[in-house]
Fold this protein.
Amino acid sequence: MPRNKPLLRFVLRFVVMFALLALPWPHWYDAWRAALRTIVTHTLAGSSGSREVSVTTPEGTPHVADFRLEIINRGLMNPDGSGPVRHLDLNVAQIEMRPIVLLFALIFATPLPWKRRVSFFAIGAVLLQIGILATLSICIWRESMELLLVNATSTEKAVATALQDGLTQYFGLAMPFVLWLLLCGRGVISGGWQSLFAPADAEATHGKLKQA
Amino acid sequence: MHLFILKFIGVLVALHAITLLPLFDRVLPIYLHGVAVVAAGLTHCFGESTTVTGAMLHSPTYAITVAPSCSAVELACYIGAAVIAFPSPWRAKASGFFLGICFVAVLNVLRVTSLFLVGAHARAAFEVAHEDVWAVLLIIASTLFVAGWIAWVTPRKTPAATETDEYAAE
């Protein structure tokens, strides 16, 4: 079999799946937005000491930011409700939908038995979601410094800013790739694409042939 | 495998750290200006009378600025980290890294050119093209570059190994 055939099949499957699922089709995207809102509301939003985090929808720039985390320090708020507020404006496609769809497309394009694909994706999606929430937690922590909810030196602020920038820029691209390699990619490093694409029984056959 | 992933994350952090250096802030505007100049040249092929000021492309009817966040540096870092971390000869790593940067630069010029044309002729579609279509295309392109490069540097298997039907279990 030509060397490039498995790779070509992988590429075609990946491109079709990712291109179809990563675009913000009307109801599809609404579902992702609702899911992220529910998850964040139940995990990161709420009151903790003086800090209050709530989920809202920013107005005016639906393509750039369609999900807002609002952070306040109740200790700094005036009786009339005015006071300093920090807004974290995010894009649901960038922070949630595309990373999970990328992981889905990478895993389901890899020719493994279906049961393994489903189980790998289930594990990967949970880990990815935990990573997304951890990224948002770090962003909230960084913004909390500006509201005096966290005492930080200028160095600590600079480190937190770099961490926040790095995670928001690279997480969505790098984390699905890393998870895919962790879950499916043993053969990529040890034996090239052929062994990545070989199912478990074919690998065993290959091992026997090599021994013979 | 774990070593590759640790290397990948380590190199990614190191490359990101480079983008935080003051020197990078001085180089980036030059690069963005270069992108704008080449993109403006390409728009001339489509009959646009585009001129460049700094990182801004403008014609009598439309203008866009190549912002630092549109430099695709993070994409180059991602490709560079995968190429450097993957076990391969240093010559292959160097050529992969160089080709990866060139690939991202060319892709970015095409993106800016197409976005200018979309903005000039179908302004309502600009945001969709900018935030959705090109975001998806860049992820696909970078993933395919990494996959293609890994396939290129991976040694060929023996005939016995390649005879197995890799889709048998599906």
In short: Chain A touches chain B through 57 residues (CB under 8 Å).
